[in-house]
Amino acid sequence: MYNDASNESGIFVRMGDKINPYGSWYTKVSKNSEVQARIDLAIKKWWVDSNGEIKIRGFEADKSILDTMYYIEFPESIPKYKGPVGYQGGPFLGGLDQEQYFIPNSWKYGEIIETYPVK
Fold it and tell me: pTM of the prediction?
């Protein structure tokens, strides 16, 4: 269950590709590696459809690239929702102790503070 977190502000962390700094899902705790992020935040390497088949866009599979860490500051009073990371099967554990934030249209509100490549 997700709860309103619009009263929270500060630095939020996102791991993604080097081309798209903003996304919808963030955390307040950075991860030390791509592997740790995939396990703790339940981020699969490939996007799949409701049948569990890998999504294809054009001639390529829709891959979830985690090569850059972003620290982005968000103010209070913008839409934010907080809740646990759901288990996604296999090693993509998530869990009640792993909190994530859903920030719709985050590119409208955030300011990139720092970025660096993921090891």
Answer: 0.83
Q: Assess contact for 95 and 47: CB atoms under 8 A.
A: no
Q: What is the DSSP string of the chain?
A: --EE-TT--EEEEEEE-SS----SEEBSS--SSHHHHHHHTT--SB-B-TTSPBPEETTEE-B----EEEEEEE-TTS--EEEEEPP-STT---EEEEEEEE-TTGGGT-EEEEEEE--
Query: Which residues make Cβ contacts (< 8 Å) with residue 50, sequence separation at least 6?
Result: none
pLDDT at 60 over 70: no
Report the pLDDT averaged over residues 7-34.
94
For 23, the token pair is: 């996304």
> Do the bridges between strand 10-16 and strand 68-74 make them parallel or antiparallel, or are there none, so unpaired?
antiparallel
Q: Read off the pLDDT of residues 32-55 as tens digits, 9 standing for 90 and up.
A: 999 988 888 888 777 666 777 666
